[in-house]
Amino acid sequence: TTMSKVFFADMRASHKENLFDKIARLLTMCGLAQRVNEGDLTAVKIHFGEKGNSAFIRPIFARRVVDELKKLGAKPFLTDSSTLYPGERKEAVSALACGIENGFAYAVVNAPLIISDGLRGVTETTVPVAGELLKEVYIGTEIVEADALVALSHFKCHELTGFGGAIKNLGMGCASRKGKLVQHSTVAPVVTARHCTACGLCIKACAHDAIRIVDGVAVIDAIKCAGCSRCITVCPTKAVAIQWNEAADLVMKKMAEYASGAVANKQGKTVYLNFITQVSPACDCYGHCDAPIVNDIGICASTDPVALDQACADLVNNARGNQDSALKSGHEPGGDKFRGCWPEIPWQVQLEHAEKVGLGSRSYELVKL
After folding, report:
1. Distance CA 87, CA 82 (A)
2. Is the CB of residue 50 less than 8 Å from the CB of residue 98?
3. What are the tens digits of pLDDT across the range 178-209?
4. Please, which of 50, 90, 128, 278 could form a disulfide with 55 given CB 3.0 to 4.6 Å?
5. The whole model's pTM is what?
6. Burial class of residue 117 in the structure, from the number of CB atoms within 10 Å of its CB (0-12 exposed, 13-18 middle, 19+ buried)
Protein backbone atom coordinates (compact mmCIF):
# COMPACT_ATOMS: atom_id res chain seq x y z
CA THR A 1 0.00 0.00 0.00
CA THR A 2 1.12 3.55 -0.63
CA MET A 3 1.72 5.64 2.44
CA SER A 4 0.08 9.03 2.54
CA LYS A 5 1.75 11.96 4.24
CA VAL A 6 -0.07 13.49 7.20
CA PHE A 7 1.42 16.76 8.45
CA PHE A 8 1.12 17.45 12.17
CA ALA A 9 1.42 20.68 14.14
CA ASP A 10 1.21 20.44 17.92
CA MET A 11 -0.28 23.19 20.08
CA ARG A 12 3.08 24.73 21.01
CA ALA A 13 3.59 28.30 19.82
CA SER A 14 5.98 31.18 20.37
CA HIS A 15 6.60 34.75 19.26
CA LYS A 16 8.33 33.25 16.21
CA GLU A 17 5.32 31.21 15.05
CA ASN A 18 1.76 31.26 16.34
CA LEU A 19 -1.01 28.73 15.65
CA PHE A 20 -2.31 30.71 12.68
CA ASP A 21 1.14 30.62 11.06
CA LYS A 22 1.20 26.87 11.70
CA ILE A 23 -2.11 26.51 9.85
CA ALA A 24 -0.63 28.39 6.90
CA ARG A 25 2.46 26.16 6.97
CA LEU A 26 0.31 23.01 7.02
CA LEU A 27 -1.57 24.25 3.95
CA THR A 28 1.71 24.95 2.17
CA MET A 29 3.04 21.48 2.99
CA CYS A 30 -0.15 19.96 1.54
CA GLY A 31 0.58 21.81 -1.71
CA LEU A 32 -2.41 24.16 -1.54
CA ALA A 33 -0.88 26.37 -4.27
CA GLN A 34 -0.82 23.38 -6.66
CA ARG A 35 -4.37 22.35 -5.79
CA VAL A 36 -6.18 25.68 -5.96
CA ASN A 37 -5.96 27.98 -8.96
CA GLU A 38 -6.71 31.65 -9.42
CA GLY A 39 -10.47 32.21 -9.69
CA ASP A 40 -11.38 28.78 -8.24
CA LEU A 41 -14.67 28.91 -6.36
CA THR A 42 -13.46 27.07 -3.28
CA ALA A 43 -15.76 25.44 -0.76
CA VAL A 44 -14.38 25.66 2.78
CA LYS A 45 -16.45 22.88 4.35
CA ILE A 46 -16.95 23.47 8.05
CA HIS A 47 -19.47 22.73 10.79
CA PHE A 48 -20.91 26.01 12.09
CA GLY A 49 -21.76 24.45 15.46
CA GLU A 50 -25.19 24.22 17.08
CA LYS A 51 -26.35 27.15 19.22
CA GLY A 52 -25.11 26.59 22.78
CA ASN A 53 -22.16 24.48 21.64
CA SER A 54 -18.63 25.88 21.79
CA ALA A 55 -16.42 22.94 20.77
CA PHE A 56 -16.58 23.68 17.01
CA ILE A 57 -13.53 25.05 15.16
CA ARG A 58 -12.87 28.69 16.02
CA PRO A 59 -13.94 31.12 13.28
CA ILE A 60 -10.57 32.90 13.52
CA PHE A 61 -8.86 29.66 12.44
CA ALA A 62 -11.18 29.48 9.42
CA ARG A 63 -10.21 33.09 8.66
CA ARG A 64 -6.56 32.15 8.20
CA VAL A 65 -7.51 29.37 5.76
CA VAL A 66 -9.66 31.86 3.80
CA ASP A 67 -6.82 34.39 3.73
CA GLU A 68 -4.35 31.78 2.41
CA LEU A 69 -6.84 30.85 -0.34
CA LYS A 70 -7.32 34.52 -1.26
CA LYS A 71 -3.54 35.00 -1.55
CA LEU A 72 -3.67 32.39 -4.34
CA GLY A 73 -6.45 34.31 -6.11
CA ALA A 74 -9.11 31.74 -5.21
CA LYS A 75 -12.68 32.71 -4.27
CA PRO A 76 -13.45 30.91 -1.02
CA PHE A 77 -16.85 30.53 0.63
CA LEU A 78 -17.70 28.82 3.93
CA THR A 79 -20.32 26.11 3.61
CA ASP A 80 -22.30 23.49 5.51
CA SER A 81 -25.54 21.63 4.80
CA SER A 82 -28.86 21.54 6.63
CA THR A 83 -29.58 18.93 9.30
CA LEU A 84 -32.09 16.11 9.82
CA TYR A 85 -32.78 16.82 13.47
CA PRO A 86 -34.58 19.70 15.15
CA GLY A 87 -32.25 22.51 16.11
CA GLU A 88 -31.01 25.78 14.68
CA ARG A 89 -29.82 24.39 11.37
CA LYS A 90 -32.62 22.44 9.69
CA GLU A 91 -33.13 25.05 6.96
CA ALA A 92 -30.77 27.62 5.43
CA VAL A 93 -32.12 30.80 7.07
CA SER A 94 -31.73 29.46 10.62
CA ALA A 95 -28.51 27.65 9.73
CA LEU A 96 -26.87 30.83 8.42
CA ALA A 97 -28.14 32.85 11.39
CA CYS A 98 -26.72 30.21 13.75
CA GLY A 99 -23.37 30.21 11.93
CA ILE A 100 -23.13 34.00 12.11
CA GLU A 101 -24.10 34.06 15.81
CA ASN A 102 -21.40 31.45 16.47
CA GLY A 103 -18.84 33.84 14.99
CA PHE A 104 -18.71 32.83 11.32
CA ALA A 105 -19.68 36.30 10.17
CA TYR A 106 -18.15 37.89 7.05
CA ALA A 107 -16.32 40.43 9.21
CA VAL A 108 -14.61 37.58 11.05
CA VAL A 109 -14.00 34.94 8.36
CA ASN A 110 -13.55 37.25 5.35
CA ALA A 111 -15.74 35.07 3.11
CA PRO A 112 -19.45 34.65 2.38
CA LEU A 113 -21.47 31.79 3.87
CA ILE A 114 -23.45 29.55 1.52
CA ILE A 115 -25.58 26.57 2.55
CA SER A 116 -24.62 23.76 0.17
CA ASP A 117 -28.04 22.16 -0.27
CA GLY A 118 -30.31 25.16 -0.63
CA LEU A 119 -33.12 26.72 1.38
CA ARG A 120 -34.69 23.49 2.61
CA GLY A 121 -31.95 20.91 2.06
CA VAL A 122 -33.33 19.69 -1.27
CA THR A 123 -30.91 21.37 -3.70
CA GLU A 124 -28.92 18.27 -4.54
CA THR A 125 -26.93 16.67 -7.34
CA THR A 126 -27.02 12.92 -7.91
CA VAL A 127 -23.46 11.60 -8.13
CA PRO A 128 -22.76 8.04 -9.34
CA VAL A 129 -20.47 6.00 -7.05
CA ALA A 130 -19.05 2.48 -7.26
CA GLY A 131 -20.03 1.57 -3.72
CA GLU A 132 -20.66 -1.78 -2.12
CA LEU A 133 -24.04 -0.56 -0.83
CA LEU A 134 -24.81 2.46 -3.02
CA LYS A 135 -24.63 3.21 -6.72
CA GLU A 136 -25.54 6.90 -6.42
CA VAL A 137 -25.38 9.55 -3.72
CA TYR A 138 -27.14 12.88 -3.19
CA ILE A 139 -24.68 15.70 -2.57
CA GLY A 140 -25.42 19.39 -1.92
CA THR A 141 -25.21 21.07 -5.33
CA GLU A 142 -22.95 23.92 -4.23
CA ILE A 143 -20.32 21.38 -3.11
CA VAL A 144 -20.46 19.60 -6.48
CA GLU A 145 -20.34 22.90 -8.38
CA ALA A 146 -17.31 24.21 -6.47
CA ASP A 147 -13.95 24.01 -8.28
CA ALA A 148 -11.98 23.03 -5.17
CA LEU A 149 -12.64 22.03 -1.59
CA VAL A 150 -10.85 22.55 1.73
CA ALA A 151 -12.46 20.55 4.53
CA LEU A 152 -11.94 21.82 8.07
CA SER A 153 -13.05 19.12 10.48
CA HIS A 154 -13.29 19.18 14.25
CA PHE A 155 -12.00 15.76 15.35
CA LYS A 156 -14.12 14.40 18.21
CA CYS A 157 -16.06 11.37 19.40
CA HIS A 158 -19.44 10.60 17.86
CA GLU A 159 -22.38 8.57 19.09
CA LEU A 160 -23.13 6.95 15.71
CA THR A 161 -19.68 6.53 14.17
CA GLY A 162 -17.31 6.40 17.15
CA PHE A 163 -15.47 9.48 15.94
CA GLY A 164 -16.18 12.25 13.48
CA GLY A 165 -13.39 13.60 11.30
CA ALA A 166 -12.76 14.32 7.63
CA ILE A 167 -14.69 11.27 6.36
CA LYS A 168 -17.77 12.30 8.31
CA ASN A 169 -17.41 15.97 7.33
CA LEU A 170 -17.44 14.87 3.68
CA GLY A 171 -19.94 12.02 3.80
CA MET A 172 -22.58 13.31 6.16
CA GLY A 173 -21.66 16.99 5.97
CA CYS A 174 -21.86 17.36 2.18
CA ALA A 175 -25.01 15.26 1.74
CA SER A 176 -28.39 16.84 1.09
CA ARG A 177 -31.26 16.05 3.45
CA LYS A 178 -32.23 13.07 1.29
CA GLY A 179 -28.61 11.90 1.35
CA LYS A 180 -28.52 12.13 5.15
CA LEU A 181 -31.76 10.11 5.31
CA VAL A 182 -30.25 7.38 3.13
CA GLN A 183 -27.24 7.14 5.45
CA HIS A 184 -29.31 7.07 8.65
CA SER A 185 -32.15 4.87 7.40
CA THR A 186 -30.84 1.76 9.17
CA VAL A 187 -31.01 3.46 12.55
CA ALA A 188 -34.68 3.14 13.57
CA PRO A 189 -34.43 2.66 17.35
CA VAL A 190 -36.71 0.59 19.58
CA VAL A 191 -38.03 1.39 23.05
CA THR A 192 -37.49 -1.03 25.95
CA ALA A 193 -40.90 -0.88 27.64
CA ARG A 194 -39.66 -1.64 31.16
CA HIS A 195 -37.31 1.37 31.14
CA CYS A 196 -39.78 3.85 29.58
CA THR A 197 -41.44 6.34 31.95
CA ALA A 198 -43.54 7.99 29.20
CA CYS A 199 -41.93 11.35 30.02
CA GLY A 200 -42.37 12.51 26.42
CA LEU A 201 -38.89 14.00 25.99
CA CYS A 202 -38.30 11.83 22.91
CA ILE A 203 -41.50 13.14 21.31
CA LYS A 204 -40.29 16.72 21.77
CA ALA A 205 -36.88 15.82 20.31
CA CYS A 206 -38.32 14.12 17.20
CA ALA A 207 -38.56 16.36 14.14
CA HIS A 208 -40.32 13.66 12.12
CA ASP A 209 -43.47 13.00 14.19
CA ALA A 210 -42.37 9.38 14.50
CA ILE A 211 -42.97 8.82 18.23
CA ARG A 212 -46.15 8.57 20.28
CA ILE A 213 -47.14 7.20 23.68
CA VAL A 214 -49.26 4.04 23.51
CA ASP A 215 -50.47 2.47 26.79
CA GLY A 216 -47.87 4.38 28.81
CA VAL A 217 -44.93 3.47 26.58
CA ALA A 218 -43.21 5.44 23.80
CA VAL A 219 -43.54 3.73 20.42
CA ILE A 220 -41.36 4.61 17.42
CA ASP A 221 -42.81 4.38 13.92
CA ALA A 222 -39.94 2.91 11.89
CA ILE A 223 -41.48 4.16 8.63
CA LYS A 224 -41.51 7.81 9.77
CA CYS A 225 -38.19 7.57 11.63
CA ALA A 226 -35.31 9.41 9.94
CA GLY A 227 -32.64 7.70 12.05
CA CYS A 228 -31.20 10.94 13.41
CA SER A 229 -30.64 9.30 16.84
CA ARG A 230 -31.92 12.37 18.73
CA CYS A 231 -34.37 10.34 20.86
CA ILE A 232 -31.54 8.09 22.05
CA THR A 233 -29.54 10.97 23.41
CA VAL A 234 -32.43 12.74 25.19
CA CYS A 235 -33.92 9.67 26.90
CA PRO A 236 -33.16 10.04 30.64
CA THR A 237 -33.66 6.31 31.39
CA LYS A 238 -31.77 4.99 28.33
CA ALA A 239 -34.94 3.21 27.19
CA VAL A 240 -34.33 3.98 23.52
CA ALA A 241 -31.86 1.66 21.83
CA ILE A 242 -30.59 0.59 18.42
CA GLN A 243 -29.45 -2.79 17.14
CA TRP A 244 -26.07 -1.07 17.06
CA ASN A 245 -23.63 -3.58 15.64
CA GLU A 246 -25.42 -3.82 12.31
CA ALA A 247 -26.83 -0.29 12.21
CA ALA A 248 -23.56 1.46 13.06
CA ASP A 249 -21.69 -0.64 10.49
CA LEU A 250 -24.13 0.32 7.76
CA VAL A 251 -24.17 4.01 8.66
CA MET A 252 -20.36 4.13 8.52
CA LYS A 253 -20.15 2.22 5.23
CA LYS A 254 -22.75 4.45 3.57
CA MET A 255 -21.01 7.52 4.99
CA ALA A 256 -17.68 6.43 3.45
CA GLU A 257 -19.39 5.89 0.08
CA TYR A 258 -21.01 9.33 0.37
CA ALA A 259 -17.61 10.85 1.15
CA SER A 260 -16.22 9.37 -2.07
CA GLY A 261 -19.14 10.93 -3.98
CA ALA A 262 -18.67 14.34 -2.34
CA VAL A 263 -15.18 14.69 -3.86
CA ALA A 264 -15.63 12.53 -6.98
CA ASN A 265 -15.19 15.47 -9.37
CA LYS A 266 -12.34 17.10 -7.43
CA GLN A 267 -9.29 14.93 -8.15
CA GLY A 268 -6.21 16.89 -7.06
CA LYS A 269 -8.40 19.79 -5.88
CA THR A 270 -8.88 18.98 -2.18
CA VAL A 271 -7.06 19.61 1.10
CA TYR A 272 -8.13 18.41 4.55
CA LEU A 273 -7.39 19.85 7.99
CA ASN A 274 -8.43 18.14 11.23
CA PHE A 275 -8.44 20.11 14.47
CA ILE A 276 -7.81 17.78 17.43
CA THR A 277 -8.96 20.41 19.92
CA GLN A 278 -11.75 20.29 22.51
CA VAL A 279 -12.20 16.61 21.72
CA SER A 280 -15.78 16.29 22.96
CA PRO A 281 -17.46 12.93 23.65
CA ALA A 282 -20.29 13.67 21.19
CA CYS A 283 -21.14 15.54 18.00
CA ASP A 284 -21.10 19.36 17.58
CA CYS A 285 -24.80 19.08 16.69
CA TYR A 286 -25.89 19.38 20.30
CA GLY A 287 -26.77 22.61 22.04
CA HIS A 288 -24.02 21.87 24.58
CA CYS A 289 -20.56 20.33 24.59
CA ASP A 290 -19.23 18.15 27.36
CA ALA A 291 -15.70 18.34 28.79
CA PRO A 292 -12.93 17.17 26.42
CA ILE A 293 -11.90 13.50 26.84
CA VAL A 294 -8.22 14.27 26.13
CA ASN A 295 -6.19 17.49 26.19
CA ASP A 296 -5.80 19.46 22.96
CA ILE A 297 -3.35 17.63 20.69
CA GLY A 298 -2.89 19.78 17.60
CA ILE A 299 -3.83 20.20 13.95
CA CYS A 300 -3.27 17.61 11.22
CA ALA A 301 -3.42 18.16 7.46
CA SER A 302 -3.31 15.90 4.43
CA THR A 303 -4.55 15.48 0.87
CA ASP A 304 -5.78 12.01 1.94
CA PRO A 305 -8.83 12.12 4.25
CA VAL A 306 -8.53 8.45 5.26
CA ALA A 307 -4.88 8.71 6.30
CA LEU A 308 -5.75 11.95 8.10
CA ASP A 309 -8.56 10.40 10.16
CA GLN A 310 -6.47 7.31 10.93
CA ALA A 311 -3.58 9.49 12.16
CA CYS A 312 -5.92 11.59 14.31
CA ALA A 313 -7.58 8.49 15.78
CA ASP A 314 -4.13 7.14 16.68
CA LEU A 315 -3.05 10.46 18.21
CA VAL A 316 -6.20 10.60 20.36
CA ASN A 317 -5.88 6.97 21.45
CA ASN A 318 -2.19 7.43 22.30
CA ALA A 319 -3.00 10.38 24.55
CA ARG A 320 -3.83 10.13 28.23
CA GLY A 321 -7.59 10.28 28.83
CA ASN A 322 -9.06 12.94 31.10
CA GLN A 323 -10.40 11.56 34.38
CA ASP A 324 -13.04 14.27 34.80
CA SER A 325 -14.75 13.54 31.50
CA ALA A 326 -17.40 11.25 30.00
CA LEU A 327 -14.67 8.70 29.19
CA LYS A 328 -15.61 5.43 30.94
CA SER A 329 -12.56 3.34 29.97
CA GLY A 330 -9.34 3.47 27.96
CA HIS A 331 -7.86 6.35 29.97
CA GLU A 332 -4.32 4.97 29.63
CA PRO A 333 -2.19 6.02 26.63
CA GLY A 334 -3.02 3.46 23.93
CA GLY A 335 -6.50 2.84 25.33
CA ASP A 336 -9.48 3.01 22.97
CA LYS A 337 -10.99 6.43 23.65
CA PHE A 338 -13.86 6.04 21.17
CA ARG A 339 -15.03 2.76 22.70
CA GLY A 340 -14.46 4.41 26.06
CA CYS A 341 -17.25 6.83 25.18
CA TRP A 342 -19.36 4.65 22.88
CA PRO A 343 -18.64 0.97 23.70
CA GLU A 344 -21.03 -0.37 21.04
CA ILE A 345 -19.48 1.36 18.04
CA PRO A 346 -16.91 -0.44 15.85
CA TRP A 347 -15.37 2.87 14.73
CA GLN A 348 -12.67 1.25 12.56
CA VAL A 349 -15.39 0.34 10.02
CA GLN A 350 -15.48 3.87 8.59
CA LEU A 351 -11.72 3.78 7.98
CA GLU A 352 -11.73 0.24 6.54
CA HIS A 353 -14.61 0.98 4.18
CA ALA A 354 -13.32 4.39 3.11
CA GLU A 355 -10.05 2.72 2.12
CA LYS A 356 -11.95 -0.07 0.35
CA VAL A 357 -13.97 2.35 -1.81
CA GLY A 358 -10.79 4.19 -2.82
CA LEU A 359 -11.16 7.39 -0.80
CA GLY A 360 -7.62 7.05 0.55
CA SER A 361 -5.15 4.90 2.43
CA ARG A 362 -4.99 3.97 6.12
CA SER A 363 -1.17 3.73 5.86
CA TYR A 364 0.41 7.05 6.68
CA GLU A 365 3.65 8.76 7.52
CA LEU A 366 3.29 11.42 10.22
CA VAL A 367 5.42 14.44 9.35
CA LYS A 368 5.83 16.77 12.32
CA LEU A 369 6.27 20.49 11.70
Report:
1. 10
2. yes
3. 898 889 877 778 899 999 999 999 999 888 89
4. 278
5. 0.90
6. buried
